[in-house]
TrEMBL record:
InterPro entries with a match to the protein in the record: Asparaginase_II (IPR010349)
One Pfam family, short name: Asparaginase_II
Protein name as catalogued: Asparaginase
Source species of the chain: Pelomonas candidula
Entry superkingdom: Bacteria
Length: 344
Protein backbone atom coordinates (compact mmCIF):
# COMPACT_ATOMS: atom_id res chain seq x y z
CA UNK A 1 0.00 0.00 0.00
CA UNK A 2 1.32 3.43 -0.91
CA UNK A 3 2.04 5.93 1.88
CA UNK A 4 0.05 9.08 2.54
CA UNK A 5 1.55 12.00 0.62
CA UNK A 6 -0.95 14.73 1.51
CA UNK A 7 -3.40 15.23 4.38
CA UNK A 8 -6.47 17.48 4.44
CA UNK A 9 -7.31 19.12 7.75
CA UNK A 10 -10.67 20.45 8.89
CA UNK A 11 -9.95 22.53 11.92
CA UNK A 12 -6.97 20.75 13.43
CA UNK A 13 -8.19 17.21 12.68
CA UNK A 14 -7.36 15.13 9.62
CA UNK A 15 -10.43 14.86 7.42
CA UNK A 16 -8.97 13.14 4.34
CA UNK A 17 -5.74 11.44 3.31
CA UNK A 18 -4.27 11.13 -0.17
CA UNK A 19 -1.90 8.21 -0.67
CA UNK A 20 0.46 7.97 -3.61
CA UNK A 21 3.90 7.25 -4.94
CA UNK A 22 6.89 9.40 -5.91
CA UNK A 23 10.00 8.77 -7.99
CA UNK A 24 12.92 11.17 -8.35
CA UNK A 25 15.56 9.84 -10.73
CA UNK A 26 18.73 11.21 -12.31
CA UNK A 27 19.56 11.06 -16.00
CA UNK A 28 21.68 7.91 -15.57
CA UNK A 29 18.69 6.09 -14.07
CA UNK A 30 19.89 6.20 -10.47
CA UNK A 31 17.05 6.66 -7.99
CA UNK A 32 17.39 9.79 -5.86
CA UNK A 33 14.11 9.27 -3.96
CA UNK A 34 11.57 6.46 -4.06
CA UNK A 35 8.35 6.51 -2.08
CA UNK A 36 5.62 3.93 -2.58
CA UNK A 37 5.37 1.62 -5.57
CA UNK A 38 7.30 3.33 -8.36
CA UNK A 39 7.26 0.25 -10.62
CA UNK A 40 3.49 -0.02 -10.99
CA UNK A 41 2.44 1.25 -14.43
CA UNK A 42 0.22 4.34 -14.33
CA UNK A 43 -1.32 6.42 -17.09
CA UNK A 44 0.60 9.74 -17.09
CA UNK A 45 -2.05 11.44 -19.22
CA UNK A 46 -1.22 15.09 -19.97
CA UNK A 47 1.87 15.10 -17.74
CA UNK A 48 3.92 13.84 -20.72
CA UNK A 49 2.93 16.52 -23.24
CA UNK A 50 6.53 17.77 -23.40
CA UNK A 51 7.61 14.30 -24.53
CA UNK A 52 4.73 14.06 -26.99
CA UNK A 53 5.83 17.36 -28.55
CA UNK A 54 9.41 16.20 -29.19
CA UNK A 55 8.71 15.03 -32.78
CA UNK A 56 7.16 18.41 -33.62
CA UNK A 57 10.55 20.05 -33.09
CA UNK A 58 12.93 17.16 -33.82
CA UNK A 59 11.36 16.58 -37.25
CA UNK A 60 11.92 20.18 -38.30
CA UNK A 61 8.15 20.85 -38.56
CA UNK A 62 8.15 23.63 -35.96
CA UNK A 63 10.95 25.43 -37.79
CA UNK A 64 9.48 24.78 -41.25
CA UNK A 65 6.20 26.45 -40.30
CA UNK A 66 7.75 29.18 -38.14
CA UNK A 67 6.28 28.29 -34.75
CA UNK A 68 7.19 30.81 -32.07
CA UNK A 69 7.74 30.43 -28.31
CA UNK A 70 4.05 30.83 -27.42
CA UNK A 71 2.99 28.27 -30.02
CA UNK A 72 5.60 25.75 -28.88
CA UNK A 73 4.67 26.29 -25.23
CA UNK A 74 1.02 25.70 -26.14
CA UNK A 75 2.02 22.37 -27.69
CA UNK A 76 3.02 21.29 -24.14
CA UNK A 77 -0.11 22.72 -22.52
CA UNK A 78 -3.28 21.77 -20.71
CA UNK A 79 -4.60 25.30 -21.01
CA UNK A 80 -7.66 26.97 -19.52
CA UNK A 81 -9.26 27.95 -22.83
CA UNK A 82 -8.62 31.67 -22.37
CA UNK A 83 -8.69 33.96 -25.41
CA UNK A 84 -4.89 33.99 -25.69
CA UNK A 85 -4.80 30.20 -25.80
CA UNK A 86 -7.53 29.97 -28.40
CA UNK A 87 -5.92 32.63 -30.60
CA UNK A 88 -2.51 30.96 -30.38
CA UNK A 89 -3.84 27.56 -31.41
CA UNK A 90 -5.76 29.18 -34.27
CA UNK A 91 -2.55 30.94 -35.29
CA UNK A 92 -0.70 27.65 -35.64
CA UNK A 93 -3.44 26.26 -37.86
CA UNK A 94 -3.44 29.45 -39.96
CA UNK A 95 0.27 28.95 -40.64
CA UNK A 96 -0.65 25.50 -41.98
CA UNK A 97 -3.47 26.83 -44.13
CA UNK A 98 -6.00 24.92 -42.01
CA UNK A 99 -8.84 25.68 -39.60
CA UNK A 100 -10.10 24.24 -36.32
CA UNK A 101 -11.88 21.54 -38.33
CA UNK A 102 -8.51 19.80 -38.61
CA UNK A 103 -8.37 19.20 -34.84
CA UNK A 104 -9.57 15.84 -33.51
CA UNK A 105 -9.35 16.61 -29.79
CA UNK A 106 -13.07 17.29 -29.39
CA UNK A 107 -14.98 20.27 -28.02
CA UNK A 108 -14.44 21.43 -24.45
CA UNK A 109 -15.68 24.52 -22.63
CA UNK A 110 -13.00 26.74 -21.03
CA UNK A 111 -12.10 25.76 -17.48
CA UNK A 112 -11.50 29.41 -16.54
CA UNK A 113 -14.86 30.39 -15.06
CA UNK A 114 -14.91 34.11 -16.01
CA UNK A 115 -14.13 33.15 -19.62
CA UNK A 116 -16.87 30.53 -19.59
CA UNK A 117 -19.42 32.96 -18.11
CA UNK A 118 -18.51 35.59 -20.68
CA UNK A 119 -19.02 33.16 -23.54
CA UNK A 120 -22.39 32.07 -22.21
CA UNK A 121 -23.48 35.69 -21.70
CA UNK A 122 -22.59 36.45 -25.32
CA UNK A 123 -24.33 33.36 -26.60
CA UNK A 124 -21.06 31.85 -27.87
CA UNK A 125 -20.39 28.15 -28.18
CA UNK A 126 -17.18 26.27 -27.49
CA UNK A 127 -15.15 24.47 -30.13
CA UNK A 128 -12.02 22.35 -30.40
CA UNK A 129 -9.80 25.44 -30.06
CA UNK A 130 -11.10 25.80 -26.48
CA UNK A 131 -10.09 22.23 -25.67
CA UNK A 132 -7.23 22.19 -23.16
CA UNK A 133 -5.27 20.01 -25.62
CA UNK A 134 -5.77 22.19 -28.72
CA UNK A 135 -2.15 23.32 -28.67
CA UNK A 136 -0.84 19.77 -28.52
CA UNK A 137 -3.17 18.75 -31.33
CA UNK A 138 -2.20 21.77 -33.43
CA UNK A 139 1.37 20.52 -33.03
CA UNK A 140 0.34 17.05 -34.20
CA UNK A 141 -1.32 18.56 -37.26
CA UNK A 142 1.81 20.62 -37.91
CA UNK A 143 3.91 17.44 -37.88
CA UNK A 144 1.40 15.79 -40.22
CA UNK A 145 1.67 18.71 -42.63
CA UNK A 146 5.45 18.36 -42.84
CA UNK A 147 5.09 14.62 -43.45
CA UNK A 148 2.53 15.34 -46.17
CA UNK A 149 4.81 17.91 -47.77
CA UNK A 150 7.69 15.42 -47.80
CA UNK A 151 5.43 12.76 -49.30
CA UNK A 152 3.98 15.13 -51.88
CA UNK A 153 0.40 14.57 -50.73
CA UNK A 154 -2.47 16.75 -49.52
CA UNK A 155 -1.84 17.92 -45.92
CA UNK A 156 -5.47 17.93 -44.81
CA UNK A 157 -6.06 14.46 -46.15
CA UNK A 158 -2.82 13.11 -44.68
CA UNK A 159 -3.57 14.61 -41.25
CA UNK A 160 -7.04 13.08 -41.08
CA UNK A 161 -7.19 10.40 -38.40
CA UNK A 162 -3.88 11.47 -36.81
CA UNK A 163 -5.14 10.41 -33.35
CA UNK A 164 -5.12 6.73 -34.32
CA UNK A 165 -2.26 4.64 -32.94
CA UNK A 166 -1.28 3.42 -36.41
CA UNK A 167 -1.15 6.91 -37.98
CA UNK A 168 2.42 8.04 -38.84
CA UNK A 169 2.08 11.00 -36.45
CA UNK A 170 1.18 8.81 -33.48
CA UNK A 171 3.90 6.34 -34.40
CA UNK A 172 6.43 9.17 -34.10
CA UNK A 173 4.94 10.26 -30.77
CA UNK A 174 5.03 6.69 -29.43
CA UNK A 175 8.64 6.30 -30.56
CA UNK A 176 9.60 9.49 -28.72
CA UNK A 177 7.93 8.21 -25.53
CA UNK A 178 9.74 4.90 -25.83
CA UNK A 179 13.11 6.55 -26.39
CA UNK A 180 12.72 8.90 -23.44
CA UNK A 181 11.32 6.41 -20.92
CA UNK A 182 13.31 3.36 -21.99
CA UNK A 183 10.04 1.40 -22.16
CA UNK A 184 8.65 -0.11 -25.35
CA UNK A 185 5.25 1.55 -25.18
CA UNK A 186 3.85 -0.82 -27.79
CA UNK A 187 4.09 -3.53 -25.11
CA UNK A 188 2.63 -1.32 -22.36
CA UNK A 189 -1.03 -1.27 -21.33
CA UNK A 190 -2.84 1.17 -23.62
CA UNK A 191 -5.91 3.33 -23.17
CA UNK A 192 -7.47 6.30 -24.91
CA UNK A 193 -6.84 9.75 -23.47
CA UNK A 194 -9.48 12.44 -23.01
CA UNK A 195 -8.34 14.09 -26.24
CA UNK A 196 -8.61 10.77 -28.16
CA UNK A 197 -4.91 9.92 -28.63
CA UNK A 198 -3.38 6.72 -27.21
CA UNK A 199 -2.12 6.84 -23.64
CA UNK A 200 0.24 4.23 -22.21
CA UNK A 201 0.62 3.00 -18.64
CA UNK A 202 4.25 3.41 -17.58
CA UNK A 203 6.12 3.06 -14.27
CA UNK A 204 6.83 6.22 -12.30
CA UNK A 205 10.53 5.33 -12.29
CA UNK A 206 10.56 5.35 -16.12
CA UNK A 207 8.60 8.60 -16.31
CA UNK A 208 10.99 10.30 -13.89
CA UNK A 209 13.92 9.05 -15.97
CA UNK A 210 12.32 10.47 -19.11
CA UNK A 211 12.07 13.91 -17.54
CA UNK A 212 15.63 13.76 -16.25
CA UNK A 213 16.68 13.00 -19.82
CA UNK A 214 14.46 15.78 -21.18
CA UNK A 215 16.11 18.20 -18.79
CA UNK A 216 19.67 17.19 -19.62
CA UNK A 217 19.59 15.59 -23.06
CA UNK A 218 21.43 12.58 -21.62
CA UNK A 219 20.75 9.35 -23.57
CA UNK A 220 18.43 11.10 -26.03
CA UNK A 221 19.18 11.37 -29.72
CA UNK A 222 20.75 14.68 -30.72
CA UNK A 223 17.50 15.70 -32.40
CA UNK A 224 15.35 14.88 -29.36
CA UNK A 225 17.82 16.50 -26.97
CA UNK A 226 17.70 19.72 -29.01
CA UNK A 227 13.93 19.49 -29.20
CA UNK A 228 13.56 19.08 -25.44
CA UNK A 229 15.80 22.07 -24.83
CA UNK A 230 13.89 24.21 -27.34
CA UNK A 231 10.54 23.29 -25.81
CA UNK A 232 11.74 24.01 -22.27
CA UNK A 233 13.09 27.37 -23.40
CA UNK A 234 9.78 28.21 -25.07
CA UNK A 235 7.81 27.30 -21.95
CA UNK A 236 10.13 29.38 -19.76
CA UNK A 237 9.52 32.37 -22.06
CA UNK A 238 5.76 31.84 -22.38
CA UNK A 239 4.58 29.95 -19.26
CA UNK A 240 1.08 31.42 -19.45
CA UNK A 241 0.43 29.21 -22.45
CA UNK A 242 1.02 25.98 -20.51
CA UNK A 243 -1.83 26.58 -18.05
CA UNK A 244 -3.28 30.05 -17.70
CA UNK A 245 -4.44 32.52 -15.09
CA UNK A 246 -3.82 31.29 -11.52
CA UNK A 247 -2.79 27.83 -12.71
CA UNK A 248 -0.06 26.02 -10.74
CA UNK A 249 2.16 25.19 -13.71
CA UNK A 250 2.05 28.74 -15.07
CA UNK A 251 2.69 30.42 -11.72
CA UNK A 252 5.53 28.13 -10.73
CA UNK A 253 7.30 28.31 -14.08
CA UNK A 254 6.88 32.08 -14.16
CA UNK A 255 8.69 32.13 -10.82
CA UNK A 256 11.47 29.63 -11.55
CA UNK A 257 12.00 29.90 -15.30
CA UNK A 258 14.31 27.27 -16.75
CA UNK A 259 15.12 25.87 -13.29
CA UNK A 260 11.91 23.85 -13.40
CA UNK A 261 9.58 22.41 -16.01
CA UNK A 262 6.48 20.86 -14.44
CA UNK A 263 3.27 19.50 -15.91
CA UNK A 264 0.12 18.12 -14.36
CA UNK A 265 -1.78 15.18 -15.78
CA UNK A 266 -5.33 14.03 -15.14
CA UNK A 267 -6.03 11.73 -12.21
CA UNK A 268 -3.40 13.14 -9.86
CA UNK A 269 -0.22 12.80 -11.91
CA UNK A 270 2.72 15.22 -11.98
CA UNK A 271 5.98 15.10 -13.91
CA UNK A 272 8.84 17.58 -13.76
CA UNK A 273 12.38 18.22 -14.97
CA UNK A 274 15.01 20.10 -12.99
CA UNK A 275 17.77 20.56 -15.58
CA UNK A 276 20.45 22.13 -13.39
CA UNK A 277 20.11 19.29 -10.88
CA UNK A 278 19.90 16.60 -13.57
CA UNK A 279 16.74 15.20 -11.97
CA UNK A 280 13.33 14.10 -13.16
CA UNK A 281 10.23 13.74 -10.99
CA UNK A 282 7.08 11.67 -11.41
CA UNK A 283 4.33 11.28 -8.83
CA UNK A 284 0.84 9.83 -8.73
CA UNK A 285 -1.92 10.41 -6.19
CA UNK A 286 -3.81 7.13 -5.93
CA UNK A 287 -7.29 8.66 -5.75
CA UNK A 288 -6.63 11.09 -8.61
CA UNK A 289 -6.99 14.30 -6.58
CA UNK A 290 -5.46 17.21 -8.51
CA UNK A 291 -5.03 19.52 -5.52
CA UNK A 292 -3.15 16.78 -3.67
CA UNK A 293 -0.89 16.30 -6.69
CA UNK A 294 -0.16 20.03 -6.77
CA UNK A 295 0.57 20.04 -3.05
CA UNK A 296 2.95 17.10 -3.34
CA UNK A 297 4.69 18.64 -6.36
CA UNK A 298 5.10 21.88 -4.43
CA UNK A 299 6.76 20.03 -1.55
CA UNK A 300 9.14 18.25 -3.93
CA UNK A 301 10.03 21.42 -5.85
CA UNK A 302 10.61 23.43 -2.68
CA UNK A 303 12.92 20.75 -1.28
CA UNK A 304 14.93 20.20 -4.46
CA UNK A 305 15.24 23.89 -5.29
CA UNK A 306 15.89 24.79 -1.64
CA UNK A 307 13.10 27.35 -1.89
CA UNK A 308 11.52 28.85 1.22
CA UNK A 309 9.28 31.34 -0.56
CA UNK A 310 5.54 31.82 -0.22
CA UNK A 311 4.51 30.52 -3.64
CA UNK A 312 5.30 26.82 -3.23
CA UNK A 313 4.45 26.89 0.47
CA UNK A 314 1.06 28.33 -0.44
CA UNK A 315 0.32 25.16 -2.42
CA UNK A 316 1.89 22.60 -0.10
CA UNK A 317 0.12 24.11 2.91
CA UNK A 318 -2.89 25.62 1.14
CA UNK A 319 -5.47 27.27 3.39
CA UNK A 320 -9.03 26.06 2.79
CA UNK A 321 -11.91 28.51 3.13
CA UNK A 322 -15.67 28.12 2.99
CA UNK A 323 -18.08 30.13 0.82
CA UNK A 324 -17.99 33.02 3.32
CA UNK A 325 -14.22 33.20 3.19
CA UNK A 326 -13.80 31.73 6.67
CA UNK A 327 -10.70 29.58 7.14
CA UNK A 328 -11.87 26.03 7.79
CA UNK A 329 -8.81 23.88 7.18
CA UNK A 330 -5.62 23.34 5.24
CA UNK A 331 -3.51 20.91 3.28
CA UNK A 332 -0.24 19.59 4.62
CA UNK A 333 2.40 17.10 3.44
CA UNK A 334 2.17 13.61 4.83
CA UNK A 335 4.89 12.54 7.23
CA UNK A 336 6.22 9.93 4.78
CA UNK A 337 6.71 12.57 2.09
CA UNK A 338 8.52 15.02 4.31
CA UNK A 339 10.70 12.25 5.74
CA UNK A 340 11.66 10.93 2.28
CA UNK A 341 12.66 14.39 1.11
CA UNK A 342 14.53 15.11 4.32
CA UNK A 343 16.84 12.15 3.77
CA UNK A 344 20.27 12.95 2.23
Amino acid sequence: MNPILVEVLRGNAVESCHAGALAIVDASGAVHTALGDIERPIFPRSAVKLLQALPLVASGAAEAFGLNDAELALACASHSGEPEHVATAAGVLAKLGLTADALECGTQWPSREPVLRGMLARGETAGPLHNNCSGKHSGFVCLACLMARNAGTDPAAFARGYVAAEHPVMREVSAALSAATGVDVERAPRGTDGCSIPTFALPLRSLALAFARAGTGHDLSDANARAARRLREAVARAPFMVGGTDRFDTRVMQAFGEQLFCKIGAEGVYCAALPALGLGVALKIDDGAARAAEAAMAVVAARLLQDRGDLLHGYSHAVLRNWRGIEVGALRPGEALTAALRAP
